[in-house]
Amino acid sequence: MCGRFALKASAEELRNVFGYLGAAPGAEGMPPRFNIAPTQPIATIRHAHGARRFALVRWGLVPAWVKDPSAFSLLINARAETVAEKPSFRGAIRHRRCLVPASGYYEWHRPSDGSKQPWYIRPRDGQMVALAGLWEEWCDPDGGEIETGALLTVPANAALAPIHHRMPAVIAPEDFDIWLDVGGTSVKEAVALLRPAPEDFFEAVPVSQRVNSARDDDETLTEPAALQDAPPEAGSAATPQSKPVGRDAGQLDLF
Asked: Does the structure show a pLDDT above 70 at 245?
């Protein structure tokens, strides 16, 4: 599962990595974000009109067939194993795939005592990562439109499984065009790209409980902090300055 993430990059860095056409509307001057939460805007890259394009969407996918979004569950994640079968995601995985730029994401480990320890999980090389995403457009009866999105998740690799059993799917740069080509890449081919990141790709650091509140959004949230629990066994993604983490991981509470 992925319920919070960070994006520290500037608009120029985003263009350099993702190669979208021209300046992104709304991206110029877009401030760094360190605690992006569901229902907030997230940056996406999609293919449209012959080129990659930038778009902001609301995090929490609403399928086009939903009549009342307020009565519909907030879909922030979609499981890669079932995405092609679920009515909420079938159309998007076929026609509306996107990349979601991130500097890292947060996950919460729950030991047997019921406490929760947040971890910040980031690429070891310090670069941005492209998370696999889906987007949808919902129209209300009065003609208003809203674009929404969700992140795709896969089983965690062995390095991160001690923290949580799921992780966001990462799309490698050489696969950007394949993933975004909704006209030429079949659903089967696209789903085949959804796999756990290599075990040495991410590193995990324990961070402050302040990240639990979406109101807090500053760079210190991503800095190492003392562990709040005493996890039972080691995970190789943990950084040298942190203690090991255990395998009893649960879902993140969002609300």
From this structure: no
